[in-house]
Amino acid sequence: MEIDFKLIEEKWQKRWEAKRVFEAKENSKIPNYYVLEMFPYPSGSGLHMGHAWNYTIGDILARFKLMNGFNVLHPMGYDSLGLPAENAAIEAGTHPADYNKKSITNYIKQQKALGLTYDWSRMISTDNPEFYKWDQWIFLKMLEKGLAYQKESAVNWCPKCNTVLANEQVVDGKCWRHDGTNIETKHLNQWFFKITNYADELYEGIKNLDWPERTKTMQKYWIGKSYGTEIDFEVGGEKWPVFTTRPDTIFGVTFVVVSAQHKKLWDLVKDKQKKEVEKFLKTVKSVSEKEMAEMEKEGVFTGSYAINPVNGEKVPIYVGNFVVADYGSGMVMAVPAHDKRDFAFAKKYGVPIKVVIDPKDFEIDSKKITEAYVEGGTLINSGEFDGLENDEAKKKITKFLEKKSLGREVINFRLRDWGISRQRYWGTPIPIIHCGDCGAVPVPEKDLPIELPKKVKFGKGNPLLTNAEWLNVPCPKCGKNAKREADTMDTFVNSSWYFMRYCDSKNKKAIFSKDKISKWCPVDSYVGGAEHACMHLIYSRFYTKFLRDLGLVEFDEPFKKVFHQGMLHAEDGSKMSKSKGNVVLPEVVSGKYGIDTARFFLSSLASPDKDIDWNEKGIIGSKRFIAKIFDFYDENMNGAARRTHKALNSGSYSEKLEAKLNNVIKNVTGYYDNFKYRKATIELRELFDLMHLEKKVSKKAFEDFLKLLNPICPHITEELWEKLGNKKFISNSSWPKYNEKKLKILNKEIDVNSKVIENVFETIKRVEEKGKKISKVYLYVLPFEISKYQIPKLKKALGKEIILYSVKDDEKHDPENKSKKARPGMPGIYFE
RNA sequence: GCGGAUGUGCCGGAGUGGUCAAACGGGACAGACUCAAGAUCUGUUGGCUUAUGCCUACGAAGGUUCAAAUCCUUUCAUCCGCACCA
Fold first, then answer.
1. Predicted pLDDT of residue A650
2. What is the distance in angstroms measured between the alpha-carbon CA of A17 and the sugar C1' of B45?
3. Which residues sit opposite A124 in a β-bridge?
4. How many CB atoms lie within 10 A of CB A30?
């Protein structure tokens, strides 16, 4: 039968919307569930099947939860501020605001056609001043709490984006949006958020998250907590601290290296070394960050010496290209015998090497050492600490230094503060006014939002600087002429808390009400790309903790569970892209096969966290399945067919089908709950095949099947549900329950003896037909089954001598190794 | 270099000690229906020319076990992330 998918889809989408089936209920007492997919940046080219699949993954869960009696919040919105919109608009010769409006309208239309369960009444878009007003409000709060600050610093500059980027947005020394563009270093006055204040909590919280392991590992690495010791080296009467995780090797220090970008570098450089250092710094500056990482370790002597606090030794200080300026103190103690980098450096410049850790299994010698020994061992050449295991020595040496006020135990993090200033137009304006007298003055809360002026000139530099009317304002403090901060905030500030705004998206008085936020948040299941592991997913955690400390929310983590969907590739396995012309559009798919068919097909291809390829042939198989369901309804379930079957149909269904149905309900329920959609489709197919085979199936069983299928194929199941005479929505019906007692009938236990008799009898017959005489039958059975076997019974039935062995019996007679063949319920058999 | 993941039939992919030559789907082949194509249905789809049998197989090589795709060791390959954080 030909199914008119389009007709069915539109019919149900209209009805769902009219009856507001998917709007979350504010005053309901049933338990809440918050499902969220990462909101998109609305691109002009609309969504393709890959995006559609992403939303479908969340949608299936939302539908499943709804039928399981939850009050589901499943909202959608648009991340409409940011560079892509600005660039796309410039390219199209329109204003970003207009460009966005058009894109969003198109997105909503497309998403509605997918039958997604969004509660559109809560929709947000970040370019709405009613939204970004609260970005600014948060900024003011950060400022108030000392978490927002300005500093002149070396920042990552993308020449293509024409703006600064956060560390998280630099990938391999290149821009995260332009992978062919090297990041340059610029020194600018920038605003930062002190995310590092939360470094420890962000780090320690990771282990309790129900997130993909790889994402947690990545965050852990990104935050990078390390325990170590800060040791003061004396240089010219002043204390210069260095950070090390290996205080046990302190006696092996033969030089010290300071970063080429160190703020106080010139304090160390002696006059006669000046020229050489200057020359060296030039070579360092001329290379990009990426090349730097691959460069050989190089450096020059500064002319200064540092005094090792444990033994008073004077060691030379070098300036080196491999020391990170803003980690630790930007200066390191070098122990060439026990660190790879220090070893390479020492070899290159002929610095002495001193072994202080003695490996247990072999010997190394300071003179003949060919590579750094970085493992543990026993301390040698370390004065009073000789003979200690190095782990023990770490503690003892740190204690020793602490006592003498020469060092202390410290924890260091890799995480840096988040630079949020962007020299671009289409972002949240930073609510600051720069006054010649008062400095950076925060805009009073009552003046928020500071809206982006529509009139600006795009071209060179920051467009906001081109609107004098907007830019020049009186200082809120003294009233003198002043200028607005013209930088805007990083687009990630918007996504850091947008999921909270859905809970109370129309609130004009506050960012959200406390009641509403605690009703819905944290998000129960969050679906989105893995590429956000170290950006959005860290920033959101930071924001959540900050808002908690403001007393606005009561939870510590924004997302209980995170799920990363796989990418949907084009048929040839390559990425879908407009330029390649391989984009699969949901409208087209929907017209050809129906959107439910596509949902079923994509669900059945692979686990949703895996990358999959679109396959035009494969989807036909799913269409066949759906057509079969309709045919089955026509042949067996419609009014006429049911009347004919009535007599046969009265007792519901066969025992086998009943057991299968109960099993499938049980399993599929678990599958939906854990994003194992593929397995759900498999069991649903099996169940349907059995129904198809038996034909005479009760209405209830068929309805249960439809319910189980509904999250994946919502439109067609609604349609059939209605055809069966149901008046309410299947989407609102309750999830089928299974009966524990009916589960096991499928694998009924059969008496081993009779099964064995049957089998062995057949085999004996065949063998004897060939002229072989059999007198003895050896059976090798599993140890835990041996008690089930009854020798007299077997003997009587088979008329042969029976010798029974446990498969583990060392003494058994088994010339052909038949004991290996033993399985549960069936022994290994050997005849004589 | 470090960290994480993966490796199963023609393909996508289940299976994590026993009833596994391996679910489910796709593809292919054969047959039924049809004038024909499509759709649908049935069967086959590692090898061995009779099989409730034997052999070969779950990246490769060893090992543990009565029994291994599943556990252990080593190794190779692919993918992803980080990249001098002392």
1. 46
2. 48
3. A77
4. 10
pLDDT of residue A651: 46
Beta carbons of A776 and A801 less than 8 angstroms apart = yes
Round to a whole number and report the distance in Å from the CA of A805 to the C1' of B65. 17
Determine the pLDDT at residue A744: 64
Residue nearest to nucleotide B67 (CA to C1'): A820
Residue at minimum CA to C1' distance from nucleotide B83? A293
How far lies A177's CA from each of A82, A222, A427, in Å? 12, 20, 17
- The confidence score (pLDDT) of residue A778 equals 87
Note the pTM of the prediction, 2 decimals.
0.90
Q: Identify nearest nucleotide to residue A818 by CA to C1′ distance.
A: B66
The residues facing A777 across adjacent strands are A802, A831
Which pLDDT does position A672 carry in this prediction? 93
ipTM: 0.91
Amino acid at residue number A46: G
Residue A634 CA to B24 C1' — how many Å?
A: 25
Cα–Cα distance, A480 to A526 (Å, whole number)? 48
Taking the CA of residue A817 and the C1' sugar atom of nucleotide B12, their distance in angstroms comes to 38
Nearest protein residue, CA measured to C1' of B84 = A322
Say if residues A333 and A253 touch (Cβ distance below 8 Å): yes
Say what the pLDDT of residue A732 is: 94
- The distance (Å) linking the CA of A594 with the C1' of B35 is 33
A412: β partners: A226
Scanning every strand, the nucleotide with its C1' closest to A821's CA turns out to be B67
Greatest C-alpha distance within chain A: 117
| Closest to A552 measured CA to CA, from A529, A518, A580, A589 | A518
Quickly give A45 CA vs B77 C1' distance in Å.
39
Span CA (A821) to C1' (B55), Å: 15
A653 φ, ψ to 5°? Answer: -155, 175
Task: Split chain A (832 residues) into runs of 10 and give each run's mean pLDDT.
Answer: 86 95 91 95 88 94 96 96 86 90 95 94 95 97 96 80 78 74 80 94 90 88 91 93 94 93 89 90 65 72 94 93 88 92 90 90 80 87 92 93 94 91 92 94 94 87 90 94 94 95 95 94 92 90 96 94 89 79 88 92 89 86 90 78 52 73 91 91 90 83 94 95 93 92 61 78 78 82 84 84 85 81 84 80
SS3 labels along A741-763 = HHCHHHHCCCCHHHHHHHHHHHH
Nucleotide nearest to A613 (CA to C1'): B12
Q: A679: which 2 tokens?
A: 């397995």
Provide CB contacts within 8 A for A815, sequence distance 6+. A830
Rounded distance in angstroms from the CA atom of residue A812 to the C1' atom of nucleotide B57: 30
Confidence at residue A294, expressed as pLDDT on a 0 to 100 scale = 60
Closest by Cα among A573, A606, A602 to A589 = A602
Give yes or no for a contact between A431 and A415, defined as CB atoms under 8 angstroms apart.
Answer: no
Residue nearest to nucleotide B79 (CA to C1'): A611
Q: Which is it for strands A523-527 and A225-235: parallel, antiparallel or unpaired?
A: unpaired
Question: Measuring CA to CA, which residue among A550, A532, A551, A531 is closest to residue A540?
Answer: A532
Per the rule left: phi > 0, alpha: psi between -120 and 50, beta: everything else, A231 is beta
Rounded CA-CA distance A426/A464 in Å is 9
Q: Which amino acid is at A746?
A: L
**Chain B bases closer than 7 angstroms to a protein Cβ:** 3-5, 12-15, 18-19, 23-27, 39-41, 52, 54, 65-67, 80-86
